[in-house]
Amino acid sequence: MRMLSHLRPAFWLLAGGLLLVPAVGRAQQTAPAVIPAPPTTAPAVAPVPETASDVIIDRRGNELPGQIIEITPSQVLYRTLDADPALPPTVLPKDSLFMVRFANGTKEVFVERAAPHQPAAPSAAPKPGLTESELYHLGRHDALKYHNYSGAFWGTYTATVLTIYGGPIVGLGVSVSRPHPARNARIEREKLQYPSYVEGYGRQAQSHKLGSAAKGFGAGIATWMAIIVVAVASFAL
């Protein structure tokens, strides 16, 4: 009996342990599963270009990437990214460009320069020492002196002798056109630049040509009269 009393505590410990084992198993089955957190990664960073370039923008909107070498008052010197550094830079006229955007973000805008004022071409100035009126009379003088009027005379005369009525027609036809001093090789070429001189020459030449045609018509009529007189005298004999 004394031995049983010593084994009684061990019995109770063993029984309690057997009762605790199922309870622990049930606790492990009902405990929520722990889901491991996904590993954190740093956000992706866009790659930074190794080298930035200047950009030239022309007045049409075209962009030319490259490296600005120098900007002068009238030109922009630059080199393309693939150009050989040993070669001279490309030169662009500044007037054809709108802006340069540098690699550091700064900009330089080129203001379009106004075209330099071009004075109007002066009209043909009178010959030194002569007024417009004097040039006009100089033209008339040269027309009387240098123009050939024989064509109007002989043309009208011949037409009058041949047909009588053809004389006035030919004379008017010849006199309608106004002669120009440029057709006269004896006229100095520098005088042709003065409108007053050309006007005076043309008017005088046309007027004198009409007079020559009238003289040719008169000479033709006189010839006919002489022929008639001779014919009448011949029949009278």
Strand and helix map with partners:
Elements (H helix, E strand, L loop, with lengths): L1 H29 L23 E5 L4 E9 L3 E5 L10 E4 L3 E5 L5 E3 L22 H15 L3 H14 L2 H11 L18 H42 L1
Helix pairs in contact: 2-5, 3-4, 3-5, 4-5
Arrangement of strands in the largest sheet: 4-3-2-1-5-6
Order of helices and strands: HEEEEEEHHHH
Radius of gyration, whole Å? 58 Å
The main pleated sheet reads as: 6 strands, antiparallel
- List how many beta strands DSSP finds: 6
* Distance N to C terminus: 217 Å
Tell me what portion of residues adopts beta-strand conformation. 5-15%
- Helicity level: 40-55%
SS field, number of helical segments: 5
Morphology call: rod-shaped
On the 0 to 100 scale, the average pLDDT is 75
Uncertain ranges: 45-50, 120-126
Would you mind describing this structure in some detail?
It is a single chain. With 237 residues, this protein is an alpha+beta fold. It has helices at residues 2-30, 132-146, 150-163, 166-176, 195-236, and strands at 54-58, 63-71, 75-79, 90-93, 97-101, 107-109. It has a six-stranded antiparallel sheet with strand order 4-3-2-1-5-6, with no helix packed on it. Helix 2 runs parallel beside helix 5, helix 3 runs antiparallel to helix 4 and helix 4 packs antiparallel against helix 5. Mean pLDDT is 75; it is low at 45-50 and 120-126.
